[in-house]
Amino acid sequence: MSQPVWSVMVATCPSRTSLARIANKWTAMIVIALSGGPLRFGQVRQAVDGISGKVLADTLRELERDGLLTRTSYDEMPPRVEYELTPLGRTLREPLTALGQWAEAHVEEVERARAVYDTQAGA
């Protein structure tokens, strides 16, 4: 039996949901934050400046569902929960870190291009 041919360019392909998940800005930043090892919720929130608690909780849940991270709850007082990338999630470290580095390296060029565009468009 032959393997299915997956293509994100096909509207009905389930790989589109994976692409949408990893292309999400919060996903990329969470993966980068967890690249150094397990973190607690508050530590992830602190590392990903600007994310709300609700969006972080929702995104962590979605990443867990997709098999990209694990949530480990420790039976302690006070309760402790840690999030960690799975082996599958760790495969995203390199490409998402590279995207983050690209954004940082080219921010000035992008800002200049936006300014030129906005001036020409009369914005």
Describe the protein in words:
The protein has six helices and three strands. The protein is mainly alpha-helical and 123 residues long. The protein has one domain (15-121): Orthogonal Bundle (Arc Repressor Mutant, subunit A), CATH 1.10.10. The chain has a three-stranded antiparallel beta sheet with strand order 1-3-2. The longest helix is centred in the C-terminal third of the chain and has 29 residues, at 93-121.
Write a brief structural summary.
The protein is about 60% helix and about 10% strand. The chain has about 120 residues and is mainly alpha-helical. The chain is globular, with a radius of gyration of 18 Å.
Q: Topology, pairings included?
A:
Blueprint: H1 15-23, H2 25-34, E1 39-40, H3 41-47, H4 53-65, E2 69-74, E3 80-85, H5 87-90, H6 93-121
Antiparallel strand pairs: 1-3, 2-3
Helix pairs in contact: 2-6
Quick tags:
123 residues; single chain; Arc Repressor Mutant, subunit A; 3-stranded antiparallel sheet; mainly alpha
